Amino acid sequence: MDDISQLPTLLKRRIQAQVIGPIYAEMVAAVGEEAASAILDSAIRKAAIAEGKAFAAKAPGGVTSMADFIKVYELWTHDGSLEIEVLEASDTAFNFDVTRCRYAESYRAMGLAHIGHLMSCNRDGTFCQGYDPAIKMDRQHTIMGGAPRCTFRYSYEGEGESGSTTGAGGD
After folding, report:
1. What pLDDT band is residue 161 in, cutting at 50, 70 and 90?
2. With bands split at pLDDT 50, 70 and 90, how would you rate the model's confidence at 121?
3. Can you give the pTM of this predicted structure?
4. Inter-residue contact 51 to 127 (CB < 8 Å)
5. Are the C-beta atoms of 20 and 36 separated by less than 8 Å?
């Protein structure tokens, strides 16, 4: 498999965590926890935007939509990585709750729960900036943060029809 984007997302996140964990520990020793967290947060957000742009480029006809975004989500839930209860899936909204998060479980098992939100949770809304900036996410609770479920509320906030012909939008 030459294209790592084809790997199951949970496997990619575990591999990344094995590398990021020791690097983060060294950054904390060198610059302190606050600065190390800020650096990691910035790097992961930039990677999520780039990943969003790459997925947008693969959208049918180069036009992103909420429907296509919902299909992309199947990659993150693959093999039970996330167990979700879908509340609404339409052209303008994708609302669901995560009732089990194997990403959080993996980070805890690796001793990295303290930075799990930086490695995974912060990607969720930021990915949209690259994929289609008209898709906005609101989330009040996460399992990683100690809640019993994650509350994902995606909405399409563009004018007219859902979709962007630019595929990626603002930088």
Report:
1. very low
2. very high
3. 0.85
4. yes
5. no
User: What number of CA atoms fall less than 13 Å from residue 113's CA on the CB side?
Assistant: 12
Phi first, then psi: what are they for 149, rounded to 5°? -155, 160
Residues whose CB falls within 8 Å of the CB of residue 44, separated by 6 or more in sequence, listed in order: 118, 119, 122, 123, 126
Question: Coil, helix or strand for 108?
Answer: helix
* Distance of alpha carbon 123 from alpha carbon 77, whole angstroms: 15
Which of these, 82, 80, 89, lies nearest to 154 by C-alpha position?
Answer: 89
Rounded to the nearest angstrom, the gap between the alpha carbon of residue 54 and the centroid of all alpha carbons in its chain is: 14
Interior/surface letters 4-24, b for 16+ CB within 10 angstroms, e for the rest: eeeeebbeebbeebeebbeeb
Output Rg (C-alpha) for the chain, integer angstroms: 16
Q: What SS3 class is residue 81?
A: coil
Helices (H) and strands (E) in the chain, counts: 6, 4
Note the residue count of the chain. Answer: 171
